[in-house]
Specification:
The complex is a heterodimer of chains A (about 350) and B (about 400). With about 350 residues, chain A is an alpha+beta fold. Chain A is built from 10 helices and 12 strands. Chain A has a 5-stranded antiparallel sheet with strand order 1-2-3-6-5, with helices on one face. In chain A, strand 5 (about 75-80) and strand 6 form a beta hairpin. The longest helix of chain A has 17 residues, at about 290-305. The relative contact order of chain A is 0.10. With about 400 residues, chain B is α+β, with helices and mostly antiparallel strands. In chain B, the strands form 4 sheets. A 5-stranded mixed sheet of chain B has the order 6-7-8-13-14. In chain B, strands 1-2-5-4 form a 4-stranded antiparallel sheet, with no helix packed on it. A two-stranded antiparallel sheet of chain B has the order 9-12. Chain B is globular. The termini of chain B are far apart. In chain B, about 55% of the residues are buried. Classes of the chains: A alpha+beta (about 350), B alpha+beta (about 400). At the A-B interface, strand 1, strand 4, helix 2, strand 5 and helix 4 of A face helix 2, helix 3, strand 3, helix 4 and strand 4 of B. The complex binds protoporphyrin IX containing FE (2 copies) and iron/sulfur cluster (4 copies). One protoporphyrin IX containing FE (HEM) sits at the interface of chains B and A.
Chain lengths: ~350, ~400
C-alpha cells in the first residue's frame, strides 16, 4: 500500500537552475512578442518564456510530446500557468526561433500575454460531470477558434479573461470574468417519486432548496416531494442532495453570458460579472449562437474602450444602457435582479443616458 | 483504403479550426485505449441528446483517505462498457505548477497503465486531474503515484488543494514567497485535506501582489494577497525613458505601436489620482496610493512595489452555491508573511474552529459570516474592527448595541 499524506512534491525540486539561482531577484520583464517574455534578474541573468495555449483536457500523449520539446529546448523543465497554458523557460535566446517553428508545425499556438484573450478557464461538462447544463471543452474550443486572432496578438484595449462553468455550481468560479459562459438549466427538476422514496431523505431534500420551493408530496403515501414552479430558480441544489431530482433537459438546457467581471485589483477594484444574455440554446458541436455573441461583445469592446480599460471598466464608464445599445443585445425582465440584495442594483438617480 | 464511417460525426467537427483540438488528441489515445474510445462515443451521444450521460456520484476512494477521488459511472454502460466506471483522481500539484519532464512522464506512465490516458492540466482548483478509471485501479494507481512522490488532493467537505501564483520564481512583483507559503501550508494541513470534516469545502489561495493571478479574491474562502506598506520604488531615469518612447509601456503587452502618454495612460488612470508628472519628475503621494498596481503594470522597468512587504488577508469568497456568489472581504489589512507562517496557521485553525461550530451543512465561511455577522466573527477571532474592512460604514440604523 502507498504512503499516505506525503503531500505535494516540493516545488523546489522542479525549478529550473536559472529560476533557482534568481529566485526572488527578478527586476523587470518585457514581452518580446505575443507569447514570448524575457525576465531580467538583478544579477543580469535572463530567462525567456515561450507560452503556448492548451485546452486543459489533454492526454498523456500530448503531455509526452510537450515533454519532448522541453527536453530539447528548456533542459527538461516546464510549467503550466493558472489558465492551463504551457510555458517553456529558456536560457538560450537562440532557441526561441526553432522552438516556435516546432510549435507552429504541431499547430500549437503561441500567445496569451498582454492585451490578449488567453486560454479559457473551464470545467468538465459532458466529458465527466453529472450536473452539466452544457459541455465545457467543446464550447471552449469553438469560442477559441472564433477568437483565435486575439490569442496571439496584443490588439485589445486590455486583457480579456474568459471562463466557462457548465452549471451554477461554478466549479470554475467564473463569476468575476470579463466574459463568463455559464450553463443554465431552465426546466423544473423531474421528480422520480419511485426512486426518491428509496434513496433520498425528504427533510434533507427539502432543506437543500435555497428558495423553499420543495414541499412534501400532498399524498403522504407517496413519501416524496413536489416542486413549486413559481419559486424554482433551477439551481440544482436539490439534485446535488437527491439523485431522484434531475434537471437536465436536452431542450431546456443552454448557456447564459455574463460580462464585466475582473479579479485583479489593478485600477478598478474586483467586479462581479453581470448578466448580458440570459439564454442561448445548446447547439453542438459548434455552438454558433454562443460564439457569435461573444465575438460581438469582444469586437464592440475593442472598438469603443479606451486603452487599459477592461470590459467592466469600459461599461462602467459608458453605462450599461450604452452597452446594450452598442452590442445590440436585448434588455429583458430577466436582467433585473430578483434575488437577495436585488435593490442594490436598481438605479437611484435621474442620471442616465437614453441609450 | 476503405473509408469507415465515423462513429463520431459531431465531435469530428471539433477537429477543425486553429485552436488545439481535444478531440484530435483523444482520438490518438483511443486507438490503443478502449476507455478513451468509449469516452468519445458517449460524448458523441451527449452531443446528439444535448444532455450528459453520467450518473449521480457514487462513493469510491483509496485506503486511508476520505476524498480525492470523484466517483463517476456511465448511465449507458450497455452501450459504453469501457467507461462504465470513469472515476477521477485529484492529485496535488507542486506549487506554481513547475515540473521536470521526468516527473510528468512518470505520471503519464502510471496513468497509461491504470486509467484512460485523459487528464486535466489542471483542474480549476489547481490539482492535476486524472480523468477516468475503474474502481479496481484506484488503489494500485494511488500506490504507484505515492511511490513516485505524488499525493491526492481534496474533495468533499474538506480543505482543497491550495494554489499559488508563480511568485518570486518568475515575477518581479511578488511581495512574499507564494510558492513556499503554499507548499508549507499544504503540508501542514494534510489531515484537513484528506479527511473531510467540515460543513463544506474550504479554499486557500496565494497571490503575490494585488494583480491576483490566481483569482484569490473571487475563488477562495481565505485569500492571501501580497502588498506593501512603504513607498513605490521609482527609477526616475527609467520613467524618462518611457516618456521618450525608449521602452514599450506595459512591457510591450499593449502592442508594439502603443504610444505612451504618461498623463493619459498612467496619471489619469491612477484610481486615487495620487501621482504628478511635471515633465521631468514623477511624484507619487504614497499616503494616498491604494497599491492598485496599474502604474507598475504599465511601467515595470521604472516602478516597483515597496520593500516593506507582507500580505492582506481576505475571507469569504465563493461561487454562487448556495446563497449567491461572494468576493472575499478584508480581514487583516497587513500581516508580515514569512516562514513558518505561524500567525497565519493559527488564524486558519481559529477560523475553521468557528466555522465548524457555527456553519450549517454546505454553508461556506462567507455565508456563515453573512448570517451571523462580521462582528461575531471578529470577536471570535480576537481581531479589531478597522475602517480598512469596509467600503462604507453601515447606513441602516438597526444597531445591536
Ligand atoms: C504586464 C505585466 C504582468 C505580468 C508579467 C503578469 C504575470 C502573470 C503571470 C506570470 C501569470 C500566470 C500566473 C501563473 O500561472 O501562476 C498571470 C496571470 C494573471 N494575471 Fe498577470 N501579469 C501582468 C499584469 C497583469 C495585470 C495588469 C492584470 C490585471 C489587470 C493581471 C491579471 C492576471 C490574472 C487575473 C491572471 C490569472 C489568469 C491567468 O493566468 O491568465 N496581470 N500574470
Ligand atoms: C454545491 C456546489 C458544488 C458542487 C455540488 C460541486 C460538485 C462538483 C462535482 C460533482 C465535480 C466533479 C466533476 C467531475 O469531474 O465529474 C466538481 C468538480 C470540481 N469542482 Fe465543484 N461543485 C460545487 C461547487 C464548486 C465551487 C464553488 C468550486 C470552486 C470555487 C468548485 C470547484 C471544483 C473543481 C476545481 C472541480 C474539479 C474539476 C474541474 O476543474 O472542473 N466546485 N464539483
Ligand atoms: S460546473 Fe457544475 S456541471 Fe460543471 S463540473 Fe462543476 S459541478 Fe459539474
Ligand atoms: S433546482 Fe434549486 S430552486 Fe429548484 S427546487 Fe431544486 S434546489 Fe430548489
Ligand atoms: S499575482 Fe502578482 S506576483 Fe503573482 S504572478 Fe501575478 S503579477 Fe506576479
Ligand atoms: S499603484 Fe495605483 S494607486 Fe498607487 S500610484 Fe500606482 S496607479 Fe496610483
Amino acid at each position: 500500500m502507498g504512503k499516505t499524506d506525503i503531500g505535494p512534491p516540493d516545488f523546489r525540486n522542479f525549478l529550473p537552475p536559472i529560476i533557482k539561482k534568481n529566485y526572488g531577484k527578478w527586476k523587470y520583464h518585457r514581452i518580446l512578442e505575443p507569447g514570448v517574455l524575457v525576465h531580467v534578474s538583478e544579477t543580469g541573468k535572463e530567462v525567456y518564456t515561450v507560452r503556448m495555449g492548451s485546452g486543459r483536457l489533454v492526454t498523456v500523449d500530448f503531455i509526452r510530446e510537450v515533454c519532448d520539446l522541453a527536453d530539447k529546448y528548456s533542459d527538461g523543465y516546464l510549467r503550466f500557468t493558472s489558465r492551463h497554458n504551457v510555458e517553456f523557460l529558456l536560457t538560450d535566446k537562440k532557441k526561441i526561433a526553432p522552438l516556435k517553428k516546432e510549435l507552429a508545425a504541431k499547430g500549437w499556438p503561441i500567445g496569451g500575454t498582454g492585451h490578449s484573450v488567453t486560454s479559457i478557464v473551464h470545467t468538465q461538462g459532458w466529458v465527466h460531470c453529472h450536473t452539466p447544463a452544457t459541455d465545457a471543452s467543446g464550447v471552449v474550443k469553438s469560442v477559441m477558434d472564433e477568437l483565435f486572432e486575439y490569442f496571439g496578438s496584443h490588439k485589445l484595449p486590455a486583457q480579456v479573461r474568459i471562463a466557462l462553468a457548465c452549471c451554477l455550481n461554478m466549479c470554475g468560479a467564473v463569476h468575476c470574468s470579463d466574459i463568463a459562459i455559464l450553463g443554465v438549466h431552465t426546466k423544473l427538476p423531474k421528480v422520480d417519486h419511485e426512486t426518491l422514496r428509496n434513496v433520498c431523505e425528504i427533510p434533507t431534500t427539502i432543506a437543500a432548496c435555497p428558495t423553499g420551493a420543495i414541499r412534501p408530496h400532498p399524498d403522504k403515501e407517496k413519501k416524496s416531494v413536489i416542486v413549486n414552479p413559481e419559486r424554482c430558480m433551477y439551481c440544482g441544489n436539490c439534485y446535488t442532495m437527491c439523485p431522484a431530482m434531475p434537471l437536465a433537459d436536452g431542450e431546456g438546457d443552454g448557456i447564459s453570458i455574463w460580462v464585466g467581471g475582473k479579479v485583479s485589483n489593478a485600477r478598478h477594484t474586483p467586479m462581479f460579472s453581470r448578466l448580458a444574455i440570459p439564454y442561448l440554446p445548446n447547439n453542438p458541436p459548434r455552438w454558433p449562437e454562443v460564439t457569435s455573441a461573444i465575438k460581438n461583445i469582444v469586437e464592440v469592446y475593442a472598438k469603443h474602450a479606451n486603452k487599459y480599460e477592461r470590459i467592466g471598466e469600459w461599461i462602467e464608464r459608458v453605462g450599461w444602457e450604452r452597452f446594450f445599445k452598442l452590442t445590440g443585445i436585448e434588455f429583458t425582465p430577466l436582467h433585473i435582479d430578483d434575488y437577495k440584495l436585488s435593490t442594490t442594483t436598481f438605479r437611484n438617480t435621474t442620471q442616465f443616458k437614453w441609450g | 483504403m476503405r473509408m469507415a464511417k465515423s462513429e463520431t460525426p459531431l465531435l469530428d467537427e471539433l477537429e477543425k479550426g486553429p485552436w488545439p483540438s481535444f478531440v484530435k488528441d483523444i482520438k490518438r489515445v483511443a486507438e490503443r485505449k478502449p476507455m478513451a474510445k468509449d469516452l468519445l462515443r458517449q460524448l458523441e451521444l451527449s452531443y446528439k441528446d444535448k444532455i450528459g450521460h453520467w450518473k449521480h456520484g457514487g462513493i469510491v476512494g483509496v485506503t486511508g483517505y476520505g476524498g480525492g477521488v470523484i466517483g463517476r459511472y456511465s448511465d449507458r454502460p450497455d452501450l459504453f462498457p469501457n467507461v462504465a466506471h470513469f472515476h477521477t483522481m485529484r492529485i496535488n500539484h507542486p506549487s506554481g505548477w513547475f515540473y521536470t519532464t521526468k516527473a510528468l512522464r512518470t505520471i503519464c506512465d502510471i496513468w497509461d497503465r491504470h486509467g484512460s490516458g485523459l487528464t486535466n492540466m489542471h483542474g480549476s482548483t489547481g490539482d492535476i486531474i486524472l480523468l477516468g478509471t475503474f474502481t479496481e485501479h484506484l488503489q494500485p494507481c494511488f500506490d504507484e503515484l505515492s511511490e513516485a512522490g505524488f499525493d491526492l488532493g481534496g474533495s468533499g467537505s474538506a480543505l482543497r488543494t491550495p494554489s499559488a501564483c508563480v511568485g518570486p520564481a518568475r515575477c518581479e512583483w511578488a511581495c512574499y514567497d507564494t510558492l513556499d507559503a503554499c507548499n508549507d501550508v499544504t503540508h501542514e494541513f494534510q489531515d484537513y485535506l484528506h479527511r473531510p470534516m467540515w460543513p463544506y469545502k474550504f479554499k486557500i489561495k496565494f497571490s503575490g501582489c494585488p494583480n491576483d493571478c490566481v483569482a484569490a479574491i473571487a475563488r477562495s474562502d481565505l485569500a492571501v494577497i501580497g502588498t506593501w506598506r512603504d513607498k513605490i520604488r521609482v527609477d526616475q531615469a527609467a520613467v524618462q525613458a518611457y516618456v521618450a518612447g525608449e521602452i514599450s509601456p506595459a512591457a510591450g503587452g499593449g502592442g508594439k505601436k502603443a504610444k505612451f502618454d504618461i498623463q493619459k495612460d498612467v496619471i489619469e488612470l491612477c484610481p486615487t489620482r495620487c501621482m504628478e508628472w511635471n515633465g521631468k519628475k514623477l511624484t507619487i503621494y504614497n499616503d494616498d496610493c491604494t497599491r492598485c498596481m496599474h502604474c507598475i503594470n504599465v511601467m515595470p522597468e521604472a516602478l516597483r512595489p515597496g520593500k516593506d512587504t507582507g500580505v492582506t488577508i481576505l475571507v469569504g469568497g465563493k461561487a454562487p452555491i448556495l446563497e449567491g456568489a461572494l468576493m472575499s472581504w478584508v480581514l487583516i489589512p497587513f500581516m508580515k508573511f514569512e516562514s513558518p507562517y505561524q500567525e497565519f496557521k493559527d488564524l486558519a485553525e481559529k477560523i475553521w474552529e468557528w466555522w465548524d461550530e457555527n456553519g450549517k451543512m454546505r454553508e461556506r465561511l462567507g455565508e456563515v459570516i453573512e448570517r451571523m455577522s462580521m462582528r461575531k466573527f471578529l470577536d471570535a477571532m480576537g481581531l479589531p474592527a478597522v475602517p480598512q474592512m469596509v467600503k462604507t460604514p453601515r447606513y441602516n440604523p438597526y444597531i445591536f448595541f
